[in-house]
Write a structure and sequence with these properties.
219 residues; 0% helix; five-stranded mixed beta sheet
């Protein structure tokens, strides 16, 4: 069954954001900080339906920028601040780096592997994630180091990536992305049906931006 998440951008800068959201879909926005290469979670291109800053610092996501400003190069969403652990978004939120790179999961669905699929038996349950990468930077983004990993269940068991070329599932993308351009692409993973209730997706866009995490269920 397909599950689409939609959301519009909005900025959570003050406590007044608790009463609503300026976006048309009313989803909480995690606004980016002014520091360079700092990603934030922003639901403006959320689920329903890149070139990194030359600063070589790696970022680490935090949830609320208003309490403690994050260091340059760290993801800076506007939710609730946590001093421990990485920033974690749901599938209907997206991450925005201060250099303009934006990452979202625009579609999540459970499926089964067909006879043309690899590397599990036909009929095996899989989770398919459609990513959207928007290069809002001034440079060409090279996806050579882009990676997505999935774990599931409370113990965090690693899910194997699978492919289905006949259905164009799981191929990712390889072309460089010019400034202002958008790439939409799929990754698929073998996830047993009981594990679909608790899925964590880790994404690394390259070595200069921090890892970001999405956690939610797959229907």
């Amino acid at each position: 069954m397909k599950k689409r998440h939609t959301a519009a951008a909005c900025t959570l800068l003050t406590v007044a954001a608790l009463t609503g959201c300026a976006g048309s879909e009313g989803v909480v926005t995690r606004e980016q900080d002014s520091a360079t290469n700092t990603p934030t979670v922003d639901p403006s291109e959320s689920a329903a339906t890149t070139s990194a800053s030359p600063t070589p610092r790696k970022s680490s996501a935090t949830k609320t920028p208003s309490v403690t400003p994050p260091p340059s190069g760290s993801p800076h969403p506007t939710g609730t601040e946590t001093s421990e652990g990485p920033e974690v978004a749901t599938f209907d939120e997206n991450f925005v780096y201060n250099d303009g790179l934006r990452l979202s999961i625009v579609r999540v669905e459970s499926d089964t592997l067909s006879r043309t699929g690899c590397c599990r038996k036909p009929g095996s349950p899989i989770a398919v994630f459609t990513f959207k990468l928007n290069n809002g930077t001034d440079d060409v983004y090279d996806p050579v180091f882009f990676s997505a990993k999935v774990t599931y269940g409370k113990v965090g068991k690693s899910a194997e990536q699978v492919f289905d070329s006949a259905r164009d599932i799981g191929g990712g993308f390889e072309q460089k992305l010019l400034p202002g351009r958008v790439a939409v692409f799929d990754y698929a993973f073998s996830v047993p049906t009981p594990g679909m209730d608790d899925v964590v997706v880790q994404v690394d866009v390259d070595f200069e931006h921090s890892s970001v995490f999405f956690q939610d269920s797959v229907d």
